[in-house]
Predict the structure.
Amino acid sequence: MLPHRRVYDEEHNQFRETVRRFAASKIAPDFGRWEEAGIIDRSLWGAGGAAGLLCPQVPEEFGGAGGDFRHNAVVIEELSYSGFAGPATDFSVHNDVCCGYLLSYGTPEQKKKWLPRMVSGETVCAIAMTEPGTGSDLQGIRTRAVREGDEYVISGQKTFISNGQMCDLVIVVVRTAPDGGSRGMSLVLVETDRPGFRHGRNLEKLGHLSSDTSELFFDGVRVPVSNLLGAEGGAMGALMSELPQERLTIALHSIAAAHRRPSILPRTTSSSATPLDLRSEIFKIPGSNWLI
């Protein structure tokens, strides 16, 4: 069991018990099957919404619990500590990454439409940045959104997109100005039932097997200009504002998962620890030598 820390209060501790019960009753019985299938059941999203695990930071006016990031952190920690890395990733991308963009940059209409659905699990959200040949250097993206009247026409391809098979809504990083550098990039909401959108392969991975990670294709997808998220040309600023929290969630995942291997933590946090200590302990974890 993860130790109590002073940053959490009694409300968070009670919520932690809810997450633990959810993991034991709703994830554990089917986790092995999901790992083999490479994807969770869609029903887990509705169950997560009903239990209050989805987007707990959303204000009550949009159907949320009005919590804070500590509630999000509790979900991450408990699912990761339980060993359910795939569902933990799925929920985290939806809760901790995508939801933040809508809360920070969404119009009142966008928030009213999408946040209640994300809280309930009716809508699963993904964010699409990476492209074939374009990873950390987002200025190299080639997916384009060309304005035609009151619509954007989106063409391009994305890859390694978490929640890519299951998503109903995608926050897509697109180029709206061909020669604008980082200032020519925008965020656009794309519903996955629009003509021209296509889910690609569910990609094989070495870990987080039940977290669907996919290619996405946009073949002349038309969306209204009102689907622009934030200002046109404002994608890079939004990404730089939101990505630090995403990196924080990775730390929360990692620390909680490490607590499942208590033999690692005392040695690597002591003054006498060396890099060799950590490496030798990691190699004791079955399968880890396939990755290193």
Observations:
- Residues 267-273, 287-292 have pLDDT under 50 and may be disordered.
- The two ends are 28 Å apart (CA to CA).
- The first strand starts at residue 125 and ends at 128.
